From TrEMBL:
NCBIfam families: FlgC. The gene is flgC. It is found in: Bacterial flagellum basal body. This is Flagellar basal-body rod protein FlgC. The keyword Chaperone does not apply. Keywords: Bacterial flagellum, Cell projection, Cilium, Flagellum. Belongs to the flagella basal body rod proteins family. The basal body constitutes a major portion of the flagellar organelle and consists of four rings (L,P,S, and M) mounted on a central rod. The rod consists of about 26 subunits of FlgG in the distal portion, and FlgB, FlgC and FlgF are thought to build up the proximal portion of the rod with about 6 subunits each.
């Protein structure tokens, strides 16, 4: 495998982790949002990754891409709060199904994966530079 191919694979990994970090940020930003019905309530989102395959030999060697971003179908949190301005006729408000602890773990994992891809790129760059220096 070419070292240039390694750089491409790392770049796709960094892009995927950036999308993951952005969805985590969106989930965390909406953790305290409320609604008067279940249809309008924010739902936690998660990216789904897919391996990019080599066209000619169908082997996983070209990186990763974001296939889609799916909404978590876990039940929403219903809270009885009849004095809230967003309460429905029965006095309930709906809160998102965002688990802040899970989101923090996802953020740490995505951040470390991003850092690992940077290290792979830096190591590949150093190997390429040393290869060039061999010819001098």
């Amino acid at each position: 495998m070419s070292l240039f191919k390694v750089l491409d694979i790392s770049a796709t990994g960094m892009h995927a982790q950036t999308v993951r970090l952005n969805t985590v940020a969106s989930n965390m930003a909406n953790v305290d949002s409320v609604s008067s019905n279940a249809e309008d309530t924010y739902r936690s989102k998660q990216p789904v990754f897919q391996t990019i395959l080599e066209d000619s030999i169908n082997q996983p060697a070209s990186g990763v891409r974001v296939k889609e971003i799916v909404e978590n179908q876990a039940p929403l949190k219903m809270e009885y709060n009849p004095n809230h301005p967003m309460a429905n006729d029965e006095g309930y408000i709906y809160r998102p199904n965002v688990n802040i602890v899970e989101e923090m773990a996802n953020m740490m994992s995505a951040s470390r994966s991003y850092e690992t891809n940077i290290e792979v790129m830096n190591t590949s760059k150093q190997l390429l530079l040393r290869t060039i220096q061999l010819g001098q």
